[in-house]
Predict the structure.
Amino acid sequence: MTTLVTKKDDNGLPKDPKDVVKLIEKNEIKVIDFKFNDLPGLWQHFSIPAEDLMDAEGGIWKEGIGFDGSSIRGFKKIHESDMVLMPDATTAFVDPITTIPTLSIICDVYDPITKEPYSRDPRYIARKAAEYLKSTKIADTSYWGPEAEFFLFNDIRFGQTENSGYYYIDSNEGEWNTGRDEKPNLGYKPRYKEGYFPVPPHDTLQDIRSEIMLVLRKVGVPVEVHHHEVATAGQCEIDIRYGTLVKMCDNLLLYKYVIKNMAKKHNMTATFMPKPIFKDNGSGMHVHQSLWKDGKNLFFDKKGYALLSDTAKYYIGGLLKHAHAILAFAAPTTNSYKRLVPGYEAPVNLVFSQRNRSAAVRIPMYSSSEKSKRIEFRPPDPSCNAYLALSAMLMAGIDGIKNKIDPGDPIDKNIYELPANEAKKIKTVPRSLEQALEALNEDRKFLLAGGVFTDDVIDTWIEYKHEVDIDAVRIRPHPYEFHLYYDV
């Protein structure tokens, strides 16, 4: 079985199994933790004694290690459950969460019969997308900078039974707690939609975000900035420096892992759910992206609108044309579409613009530097599986370039305030996950190019999302329905 270990080392991480063995010895590692991604996007793992990975020339590095794929969401049926993990040496890091010295390694999933990468492994799909880009000769590298927002709450309770259904969120920062008897209540709770950038004491989360930032940097995730976000009740953002496709997806999983566990350490809870709070901003994942070839940014043109090249505009055309299908992966929950509504900075309009945050594609104008020129696709949210979502965006952009898809004219106005006759001409994102999945089913050809996605992956995704998300929510009474209909 051929491993997918690369020799390139961009972030000071190990290059090969020999380096991993040295890392184990240097840090007196006792446990090896193998991590991999299920189809919906959650890290899975299991652990072995460190001495079982010390053979850098063979053993697990050559043969892999088996696990039950039938127990992983979106993977195998029970009668074909055996799967194999192949560790990627370049991803090894000393785990910052565990008490016992542990080395974590991200793995690729293989089929033990065919000895081939497993087609439903999200990381493999992202690797294929990166290779497909190179094969087109359009570019040799794509760079990605997703901004995954999240909430830090002090308490979360929820339940659903045959005769009840509820959720209860609480936050010491929540505006709804200005009247709570806290003995004493000191106020300084950010008002709804006023959480962006106030200093402490309004921002009570400065130290925990700083602690998270330092832990992330320690494990090789390059953090650039952190701050409080717009919503009350502890909405935060910690931005990762841009990186290549697969590496960025790896970093996003590590990002979530660290944030959730550091929150727990502080007796708090972190959620990447897109819209947990009514009447306040939800959590998005605005995705900055650009294409490069031979060290040159293909999105830059000093004479173009917003310094954009024609290549960049065609890429945008692909994103806008295929946006509904992309969002089946990039906004993949029923809750995602409670965020994608007008009025909460939600980018629901399928147009592009410089600086304009009401457009689905924004062109950041902080700098006129060629190196910084990029486009920002704003509808995605952090509930997605990044390997699938970013790959879908790249495939749409490539399709736009190959077919020279015109994105139309930019709109540099507040789209929410346009006259009705102008506004009705603007296409918008899907109104529901169901609509997005229908679009994915009908508009899948661009994803199948180069064998990056497969019909099996797309069909499995659609079937899973209908069963686990759409149908499960549809058949349950909503608490607000009792307010509307109990007295009919």
About this structure: The two ends are 65 Å apart (CA to CA). The CA atoms of residues 129 and 394 lie 7 Å apart.
